[in-house]
Amino acid sequence: MKKSIIECEDVYFQYEDSTVLEEITLEVKEGEFWALIGPNGSGKSTLINIILGLKNPDQGIVKLFGENVDSFRQRERIGYVSQKSNSFNTGFPATVLEVVKSGLTAKVGLFKAFSKQDEQRAMEALRIVKMDAFSTKNIGELSGGQQQRVFIARALVGKPDLLIMDEPTVGIDQKNVASFYSMLNELNREHGIAILLVTHEIDLVTDLATHVACLNRSIHFHGRKAEYQNMDDADISKWYGHPVRRVHTDRKGV
Ligand SMILES: Nc1ncnc2c1ncn2[C@@H]1O[C@H](COP(=O)(O)OP(=O)(O)OP(=O)(O)O)[C@@H](O)[C@H]1O
């Protein structure tokens, strides 16, 4: 039986007097690729922060790999890429390899030197995202799409079982988005990494994902992609808050 990686049970959260999440129950199991979709302000980033243990829910239980998030210490099992990762300016003085190695800081320690093995792991992560040829380049010299691949490599360097990404394609030009998603597909299918991906690009991602969760304060749907695809656009539009018309894409998101 597949093991649980993320479990949220009846989670509630509010900022001051406004409730942004209620009755959130969700389970992600090993090897699954979940797309978390919802309109602006629907609580997606807040839920990700709660899952990562960066915010405490007002009510409910959150578990990672079967352990309560408060006591969970195996941080290297989770790679996280935020929305704002690709905001390095051209003057930032770090090479691609250094950025990827910084993903090992939790393991190696802040002031300890990286070993030859750490360097090899960083190069391996860069190979997976097809950025090894850029290892000595300054991160600021790369395009948004290339930078985001490097941040994925940094998230992968600790060999995580789960990759959480909050709108990783923001700032990537459209022609590179399809190859970015195709890389995520490879990470999930060939490397067996579970993925939780927050996105607005519902057509592109729902073809890649194995499961879909639709959030707008509460979870309006969660389940296998095929069930999501069988829903009417009219039903999706109701909870999304504005008309939605889905377009079928191929498995590479094209
Ligand atoms: N620090 C905060 N203090 C008060 N309200 C907040 C705070 N952060 C977010 N909110 C509000 O909580 C709601 C949910 O925000 P959240 O960022 O989780 O949504 P989201 O679905 O990720 O949005 P987007 O798709 O626009 O990134 C929004 O109404 C937002 O304005």
TrEMBL record:
<keyword id="KW-0067">ATP-binding</keyword>
<dbReference type="InterPro" id="IPR050153">
    <property type="entry name" value="Metal_Ion_Import_ABC"/>
</dbReference>
<comment type="similarity">
    <text>Belongs to the ABC transporter superfamily.</text>
</comment>
<dbReference type="InterPro" id="IPR003593">
    <property type="entry name" value="AAA+_ATPase"/>
</dbReference>
<protein>
    <submittedName>
        <fullName>Metal ABC transporter ATP-binding protein</fullName>
    </submittedName>
</protein>
<dbReference type="InterPro" id="IPR003439">
    <property type="entry name" value="ABC_transporter-like_ATP-bd"/>
</dbReference>
<keyword id="KW-0547">Nucleotide-binding</keyword>
<dbReference type="GO" id="GO:0005524">
    <property type="term" value="F:ATP binding"/>
</dbReference>
<dbReference type="InterPro" id="IPR027417">
    <property type="entry name" value="P-loop_NTPase"/>
</dbReference>
<feature type="domain" description="ABC transporter">
    <location>
        <begin position="6"/>
        <end position="241"/>
    </location>
</feature>
<dbReference type="InterPro" id="IPR017871">
    <property type="entry name" value="ABC_transporter-like_CS"/>
</dbReference>
<dbReference type="Pfam" id="PF00005">
    <property type="entry name" value="ABC_tran"/>
</dbReference>
<keyword id="KW-0813">Transport</keyword>
<dbReference type="GO" id="GO:0016887">
    <property type="term" value="F:ATP hydrolysis activity"/>
</dbReference>
